[in-house]
Design goal:
Elements lengths: L41 H11 L20 H8 L17 H17 L4 H13 L3 H14 L4 H13 L3 H14 L4 H13 L3 H14 L4 H13 L3 H14 L4 H8 L2
Helix pairs in contact: 3-4, 4-5, 4-6, 5-6, 6-7, 6-8, 7-8, 8-9, 8-10, 9-10, 10-11, 10-12, 11-12
């Protein structure tokens, strides 16, 4: 699955995993895939880890590496130098342990003791608590961050993920929408909102969210997979098959959904 939010429908029931490396450096949670996988996928967690790039490495808060533009001085020099070697593949985010997340909480506690109005510390602590499945207290921290910084897309996004876990789907939809207000090109927030809508059985409303996520990332396997499941639920088998085959071509795990929802 994608490193962002994997959720699952036991025929129509989803969960959550936080974050990804596509947007910011402040997220930390994980992500999903459908066919009977009840959880937000570890990929989204990895994505989240990438977004956060700090406390979150593997969850959904890993900050993506920045590549120089083709015509930048760095690239011009690299092209001109015969000794230049191809850049190494970015290392996969390391898996973090519960001990790591507990250490993150202690670090955030110390930061908040020094400055009780440190919104970022609340977000970091909330992400760590969510990774430890303490979703209620994570939501409390994200809400505290938003009182201090009402325009924090990361706080809204992470609170939305935790609210999927606590089955507060309408509230999650609202949070993802507010996150998108401040970060309108966030494919993970579109995906998360689509998942929350699916949990409510509103497959038709989920379609535009998955489609938007795909428009932002044409290789977003989870979005193809979930959109395919929506089409299947809306009795559109050909469209379902197309999406599920595409998802399986990108991520072999999606072949489970292909078999289940498209009869192959």
């Amino acid at each position: 699955m994608n490193p962002s939010i994997r959720l699952f429908f036991p025929a129509a029931s989803l969960l959550f995993v936080l974050l990804t490396t596509q947007c910011s450096t402040t997220r930390e949670n994980e992500s999903p895939s459908m066919a009977g996988r009840a959880r937000l996928s570890e990929n989204q967690a990895a994505a989240a880890a990438e977004r956060s790039g700090s406390l979150v490495e593997t969850a959904q808060a890993t900050a993506p590496s920045v590549n120089p533009a083709p015509d930048s001085p760095a690239m011009v020099v690299a092209k001109a130098s015969p000794a230049a070697k191809p850049a190494a593949k970015p290392a996969a985010p390391l898996r973090r342990s519960n001990a790591d997340y507990k250490a993150d909480i202690r670090t955030a506690d110390a930061a908040l003791k020094a400055n009780p109005r440190n919104a970022e510390a609340y977000v970091n602590r909330g992400r760590a608590k969510a990774q430890l499945k303490d979703y209620r207290n994570a939501i409390t921290d994200f809400s505290a961050a938003l009182r201090l910084q009402p325009s924090s897309a990361d706080a809204y996004y992470n609170r939305g993920l935790s609210r999927i876990r606590t089955k507060e789907f309408n509230a999650a939809i609202s949070d993802f929408g507010k996150s998108l207000r401040y970060r309108p090109e966030d494919k993970e927030a579109f995906f998360g909102r689509g998942v929350a809508r699916m949990e409510l059985g509103n497959f038709k409303a989920a379609l535009p969210d998955f489609s938007k996520a795909i428009s932002l990332d044409e290789n977003y396997a989870d979005a193809y997979e979930y959109r395919g499941i929506c089409y299947s639920s809306l009795n559109k088998p050909e469209l379902a098959r197309q999406d599920l085959e595409k998802a399986a071509s990108i991520n072999p795990e999606a072949s489970k959904s292909l078999r289940r929802y498209a009869g192959r």
